[in-house]
Amino acid sequence: MQVAQTNIQNTVFRLIELAGWGLEMDLTEASATKLYCAGAAMEVALEAVQLFGGNGYMAEYQVEQLCRDAKVLQIYGGTDEIQISQIARSLLGPK
Known about the structure:
It is a single chain. The chain has about 100 residues and is an all-alpha fold. The protein has four helices and no strands. Helix 1 runs antiparallel to helix 2 (about 25-50), helix 2 packs antiparallel against helix 3 (about 60-75) and helix 2 (about 25-50) runs antiparallel to helix 4 (about 80-90). The N and C termini lie far apart (about 35 Å).
């Protein structure tokens, strides 16, 4: 969980650095970032549910809501499959 948090923080720091230079992520880098961050959020949320055991599914515990929210990240703003397609297009397309 800590490794995922550190990786995502580093991605945010890179975005801030780019903005400081007056640059932006290209579409491929943005797709890769969204794909990674959404996947990491889902993995961490599922691990948290596992740690809570049966209580992880109970609405009384916030981890249940966090897991549902993490899943939405993989769907909203372009599904994982769309992000993968965008990355593949940029890798296979003309330079």
